[in-house]
């Protein structure tokens, strides 16, 4: 499909070049947190099976369980926010994308996942030391050692994964950062979606009872039945990525049909260029300047 092969320029301007990699990492953190919770539950069962006093190590493992549950909740929250952003309409996607694509947002994620894994590793080491003070079995020691080793492994993996993502983010911001023109284009494109100049519709609703499948005249690819397409006021439909790329370069329909433009855009386009405005201001100042005052030697009131 063209919609998947064509890179949305809006995503490129916002710096979402590693988008599929980000989703895989979020899924990894969900699986990691779920695995860690399962391992802690197994260790709780083995620790309380024959140790005295009863319930001691279960209480010691309550903190790791809470930390691992918080990691799982944060991973699910990030994944849900990402999928919710992708399923929203264009204007909402731009707004949510801007909230997710901030350095502080991902820096907090890096710090939280890494610090929590370090905390779990230290706590499991404390539990292992306490087990040597009581009666224990080799299976119980092996379970706690596996927990401690898994926490250390997760620390290293978290740092490797998120360090690469933050480094890619920093290179993206330095090399292809948004300037004023890009921000202005994104603002106008968002206003066009909000004011319903560009509407998101299902391809099956646009096609109706037509026997011939509709296609995008920009990339010449046919629309999928369940695919979201962008429709202009003139009725022409295009892939969202295709029309976004077109509109960012030319504020007209590809068929040169009249296209409604938000009022703020019209006012901005009506502004004269900076050099022309400066020339107009100088000419107006010269025309409005008063005549030169008479010389001291010139006659006054017609008298010599």
Overall pLDDT, averaged?
66
Content-based structural category: mainly alpha
State the strand order across the main sheet: 1-2-3
Spatial extent as radius of gyration? 32 Å
Poorly predicted runs are 1-6, 262-286, 288-304
- Record field, number of beta strands: 3
Number of domains: 2
Shape: elongated
Strand coverage percent: under 5%
Task: Write up what this structure looks like.
With 304 residues, this protein is mostly helical. The chain folds into two domains: 2-176; 181-249, 2-Layer Sandwich (Herpes Virus-1), CATH 3.30.40. The chain has 13 helices and three strands. It has helices spanning 2-5, 9-14, 19-50, 56-60, 62-87, 90-100, 103-131, 138-175, 180-194, 203-207, 240-249, 263-270, 274-288, and strands at 199-202, 228-231, 237-239. The protein has a three-stranded antiparallel β-sheet. α3 runs antiparallel to α5, α3 (19-50) packs antiparallel against α8 and α5 runs antiparallel to α7.
